[in-house]
From TrEMBL:
InterPro entries: Flavoprotein-like_sf, FMN_Rdtase-like_dom, NAD(P)H-dep_reductase. Homotetramer. The keyword Cytoplasm does not apply. One of its GO terms (molecular function) is NAD(P)H dehydrogenase (quinone) activity. This is NAD(P)H dehydrogenase (quinone). Its EC number is 1.6.5.2.
Amino acid sequence: MASVSTRLPVTSAPLHPVKYDDDLRFHSTSEEVTAHRDSDTSLMEDAPAETVLRLAAISGSLRRASANTGLIRAAAEICKESIPGMQVDHVDISGLPLLNTDLEVDGGFPPAVEAFRAKVRAADCFLFASPEYNYSISGPLKNALDWGSRPPNCWGDRAAAILSASGGSGGSRSQYHIRQVGVFLDIHFINKPEIFTKAHVAPKKFDDDGNLIDPETKEMLRKMLLSLQALALRLQGKPVNSAQGNGESMLPFIS
């Protein structure tokens, strides 16, 4: 019986070893494999770094042990502990003079106003924490909003959130008046969650120095900050991950 040869015919063209990469695509030469891997490395190097949003937080109360200023401190702690990509800058408005356009000279503003406006311009988003005075916005916060609105308006096209610690209403009327002012200033407010903190109603929400000690309010504040982060990123045309702005709470939170 004749034997069958299994020897492959010899060809004049050299054979190249077949290379396989991790996703099962093959390349006929080592040069192509190198080029493919170099391309993957280049894509990784070009990947955008995580965006860090600067959050300008403003308290409408100037009192030393203010619960509203305490809400801002709590927001800063929450961002540091559990919300990467958010940096809270407390913007002090106690040094602003009362709005008086006579103080504007040759298109400039008093030094304290210039410094305040620069901080507003540098922010990616805003957090307003304010008590309710006589069914409306506190005087210091309204003064700050007005100074920032002097031409050119410093507030426009940024995301914002509002929370309040106040008396029986929790500051709800103040918040809705801030929203009304924000319409003219082109501020984009998150709609939910809403936080109205009844500062003087049991159980105790703040310690004697105005620090937030209520876990439930802290958790709602965390959800608010995530929602604010998501809106700010969307306004900047940047991606939002699944942990941000998931709409967990659709109802106002009155603590």
